[in-house]
Amino acid sequence: MANNPKKIRFAPNGAIYIAPAPVQGGTGGTVPPIDLGSTQTAPTGYTAVGYVDEAGVTLTPALQTQPVNAWQSAVPVLYNVQSASFSVKATLQETNELTTELFWGSEWVETSTGSGVFKLDLSSNPDLREISLVVDWNQDAIRYRCVIPRAMISDRGAIQLNRTENGKYELTIEAMDFDGSLGYVLTNDDITDTP
């Protein structure tokens, strides 16, 4: 196969969308998208998190294997899968209800009706909220969509309060099993050999 600079891809545009996790093995709840949708509209049931830090989004599929050794060979004869994972890391820049609730792991509640003052309780025994995640990115008309039907926030970075830089919410989100799948990627890119 010859080198082709037209096959080099960038991700100058994109968005992250969040929804409640779908009901596993049941009906109802969020339905993960199975198409590329529109670059201007969130998938049905999902909400955009807004601006993301200029570093973008990091998608990390990982696989841990264990070698199977045999008496008759000095090298492994097989590898066995020990674990699989898929993580998404991004630093959100907008301070809004969704981003702050994701970061703090709690929901805003008005202190008293009509007061306009809201409180977010930081529990010493927090509930871990399951979410569904969609990451879209595109270069002109070439579009990609990564869908993680069921996920959980596994790590949060520190918030730096600073006079010259905006507040940011760094999140690492880990995919969880959903009917035998961690998620899937959709594209209209002409990268396959199908006629």
Descriptive overview:
Strands 1, 2, 3, 4, 7, 8, 9 and 10 form an eight-stranded antiparallel beta sheet that branches. A two-stranded antiparallel sheet has the order 5-6. The mean pLDDT is about 90. It is about 5% helix and about 45% strand. The chain has one domain: Pnp Oxidase, Chain A, CATH 2.30.110. The protein is mainly β and about 200 residues long. The chain starts with 12 loop residues before the first strand and ends in an 8-residue tail after the last strand. Strand 5 and strand 6 form a beta hairpin. It has one helix and ten strands, in the order E-E-E-E-H-E-E-E-E-E-E. Pfam families: Phage_TTP_17. This is Phage tail protein.
Key descriptive features of the protein:
single chain; 195 residues; mainly beta; Pnp Oxidase, Chain A; two-stranded antiparallel ribbon; 1 helix; 10 strands; 4% helix
